[in-house]
Structure formats: structure tokens, C-alpha cells
Amino acid sequence: MTQPDPGAIPRALPPEPAVARVATGGAGAGVIYDIGYRGYDGPRLGRRFAVWALFAFSWRAAFGLGRSGRAKVVPWGALAIISLPAVVQSAVIATAGPVGARAGGGFTYDNYLFRMSLLALVFLAAQAPELLVGDQRQRVLSLYFAHALERVDYALAKLAAMVASLFVIAVVPLLVLLLGQAFASSDPFGSFRDQFGSLPGIVGTAAVYVLLYSAVGMAITAFTPRRAYATAAIVAVFLVGSAVSPLLRRAGAGIGDWTILLNLNTVAEGVRHALFGDEANGAVAGASLTGTAYVGVAIGVVAVGIAAYLWRYQRIEA
User: Fold this and answer.
1) Rounded distance, CA 306 to CA 262, Å?
2) Residue 275, Cβ density class (10 Å: 0-12 exposed, 13-18 middle, ≥19 buried)
């Protein structure tokens, strides 16, 4: 064995953590190690920042940002597919001129979302459970509610994230259509100036569909603790209504055109037509209902859906 050099300078050893020995009775003793944890003395950003942080996190989650490639398939696939007809029609118009619009599908600002609403439904049915169900299943709601967030803050932040993400899905293809028509003209800037007047209708149409879809979809998801059940329930509510509505309308039974209001897609189209005019689509074109009926039903559905959603989060077990 080598002997230590008596002339060597001893090296300084790192300080050991403070140790406090606590007697536990008898021969044994407990030991507490101070490993350096300290309290947070910085600024408290408060409730508003917590709501914003949850909204931003949820919006990113709706598009799978910061997650695996598998989480991005449905949201980005839905956005790509719902935008594809607008891209194709814009390319046809750029090649063949305005007469080629019908060859490209005949899509307009008035009928685009009505005809492509199934893709918005797919996004809603897949991503609403993504925002809500995981927190219920993993029992982390108590962690949210134990800090600056109130229950209503959590619910509204998640709802706002769903509205914002679905609005992107709805408005992007309409903007692609607008830009395609503008740049296909021989005078792009002049054409864009002419098309600029359509922006309120584009944004308003997207908002009508998004609010109606989000209120119903989030309310259903809040009451469903399993992702597959929530997705199935959302699809069922929209598709069953669209299937039952024409059957009851043919049966008549003195109800008249009121049965078309069972179809939420028709309700959204009726509101769009009532607010922004132009050509009506689907059952709205042949119905005798006034615009007030569509607007009233839409407001009622949105109000009931949001109220049920918030009520659920006031009483949900955390």
C-alpha cells in the first residue's frame, strides 16, 4: 500500500450538505439532509398570466406542436385536406381564368365551409378530447386549481384554445381562396382591393361555424371521461342530426321546415345567410324559416352548450 506524501498539500473537499440528526426513539436516529431547495422570491405573475399560459399551451396541443409526429397527423391533415379544394381551384383560375372556377369545384366564400364542414367536425372530434380528457384521466385538475387558476379560468382557457384552433381550420382555406382569386388577376393589387371587401364575411362566416361547433363539442367532451367516447359522441350528435332532419321533414306531421334546425350545419349556414346574405346552401335555400329563427337557435345552442360546459367544471371532481 502506498503511503501518503507528508509534504503534499491537502485538496479542499466540497462542503457536505448540512445534516441534522433527529432521534426517532430507541437505538435508531433519523437524518434530514439540506439539499439546497429554496423558496421562490421572484415576482408573482398572477391569475391573468396563468390563464394566458394555459391557453397558449392548449392551443399548441390542439395542433400537436411540441409533441410527437403522431399527434400532428389529425390536426395538420385536417387543415391540409380542408384547404386542398381552395388550392386546386386557385390553381385552375390562375391557369384558365375566372371561367375555370367551376372546373375547380365552384367553391365560393358562401358555400366553402358548408361543403367542407366534415373536416372541421373531424378536427373538433379529435382535438376537443385532446384538450380536456387527459387532465381528467390523469387526475391533474387539482394541481391546476391549487394555484392561481380558478375553475372557470381553466374552463374558459380551454374553450378559447378550441375556438382559436378551430378558427384557423375554418378561415385558412377561405383566405387561400381570396388570395388565389386576387393573384390570378392581371391586376393583383386592384383585385385584392376589390376582394378586401369580402373579409368581414369571411371572418364572420368562420366565426359562426366555430362558435357553434366549439360550444357543442366542448360541452359533450366535458361530460365524457374517455377520449374514444367523447369523439364518438361528438360525431354522433352532428351526424345523427343531419340524418334525422331530412327524414322528419319528408314525414311532415305539421312541423314544417322546423326540423332542419336539428342539423347544426344547417343552423350555421342559416345564420351565415341571414347575416351576410348571398346564395343560401342546402336546406336553407328551400326553407321558409326567417333569418331570426336560425340566429335565435344558434344563440340558444351556444349559450346552453357553454353554460353546461362551465357548470360541469364547477362541479367536476378534481
Assistant:
1) 18
2) middle
**What are the phi and psi torsion angles at 63 (to 5°)?**
-105, 5
Indicate yes or no: pTM above 0.85.
Answer: no
Share of the chain above pLDDT 70, in %: 82
Does 24 reside within a domain?
no
User: Contact 281/126 with Cβ under 8 angstroms?
Assistant: no
Does some domain include residue 8? Answer: no
Residue burial 84-104, b: 16+ Cβ < 10 Å; e: rest: ebbeebbebbeeeeeeebeeb
Which tens digits make up the pLDDT trace of 213-236?
Answer: 999 999 999 998 889 999 999 999
* d(C-alpha 133, C-alpha 227), whole Å: 6
Q: Is 292 inside a domain boundary?
A: yes
Length of the chain: 318
- What tens digit of pLDDT does each residue of 255-305 get? 667 888 888 999 999 999 999 888 888 888 888 888 899 999 999 999 999
The residue range of the domain holding 230 is 46-315
Say how many domains are in the chain.
1
Q: How far is C-alpha 15 from the geometric centre of its chain's CA atoms? A: 52
In a domain, 34, yes or no: no
Q: Which residue has the cell 314525414?
A: 251
